[in-house]
Design goal:
This protein is mostly helical. It is built from 15 helices and no strands.
Length: 294
């Protein structure tokens, strides 16, 4: 029996190591190429470690008048502001729908569910953004994403598990709805709020389409995001077309496309990898506790 158990442990360990290698290999390969000499990278054969280590790819990426520094700043700002405001707005909406004395909660909940399956499409959304005068403004990254039906439903389900006696006790002590929300409800919703913040942050950080469709002319350079710059580099390398003749990133990509692609990919990926461990402990509990059936 002991032999079989040990063999099972060995097999399980081997399978887990194999999964780890398969999972980490793409990331380590991209990291190795981004730290390798661009001319040597063209020869191929790089796996886990750079063959000719250098930081020149990153130096070239952020020097010489490149728009990547502006794009990186915009990506960080929209991620931080959009995540904080989006989480607060979704939590306030969810708190209203979780209240037993809110008469229209079923109507609003059904309206939210409908929006998850039916949308106006790109053209009506574009016309709405233009009529709201959000075109070529930084707030076009923030305001359209403040409300998410899925996030609201998830937070609401979590709030329904909070004992009603807590809010009633706070109300007896003289607290109004605003104070109850910020001092009683939000502190107890840390797991689901951390999960929602991760969802919103990843969506904000990875979005490039908003820059592509909602900014024009000179505004596109000042409001550019890191992912949009990466998209331009990848597009120029794959198609051979120079999207923006003034873009330093495109010129660099023409000179050493593979190395620059990998360097930008790392710049886009690392910030989210740094943030994720801080919210990982809340992730599972936020999803499972928020999914309890009413």
């Amino acid at each position: 029996m002991e032999v079989k158990v040990k063999r099972g442990h060995v097999l399980g360990t081997f399978v887990m190591l194999l999964i780890i290698v398969i999972t980490l290999y793409p990331f380590l390969n991209v990291l190795a190429k981004s730290l390798n000499d661009p001319v040597d990278t063209v020869k191929g054969g790089i796996t886990f470690f750079p063959r000719v280590p250098t930081l020149q790819n990153y130096v070239d990426l952020f020097s010489g008048g490149s728009n990547l520094l502006v794009a990186f700043r915009n990506s960080v700002l929209r991620t931080v502001i959009g995540t904080l405001l989006g989480t607060i707005c979704c939590a306030m909406f969810a708190y209203t729908l979780s209240r037993s004395d809110f008469m229209c909660k079923k109507l609003f909940l059904r309206m939210l569910v409908v929006t998850m399956y039916v949308s106006g499409g790109i053209i009506p959304t574009y016309l709405l953004i233009r009529n709201l005068h959000l075109m070529n403004t930084f707030w076009v990254y923030i305001i359209p994403g403040l409300i998410s039906a899925y996030n609201i439903i998830l937070i609401r389900s979590f709030m329904l598990n909070i004992p009603q006696a807590l809010t009633e006790a706070a109300r007896i002590d003289g607290a109004n709805d605003v104070r109850i929300f910020f001092t009683v409800i939000l502190p107890m919703c840390k797991p689901v709020l951390a999960t929602i913040m991760l969802f919103i942050a990843v969506g904000q950080w990875n979005d490039w389409f908003s820059t592509y469709i909602y900014t024009t002319g000179s505004y596109k350079a000042s409001l550019s995001t890191l992912q949009f710059e990466l998209m331009k580099v990848l597009d120029s390398v794959n198609t051979g077309a120079q999207v923006d003749i003034h873009s330093e990133a495109i010129k660099l990509a023409k000179r050493s496309p593979e190395a620059i692609k990998m360097a930008i990919t790392m710049v886009c990926t690392v910030p989210i990898l740094i943030v994720y461990p801080f919210v990982q402990k809340y992730f599972v509990s936020g999803i499972t506790l928020g999914a309890v059936k009413e």
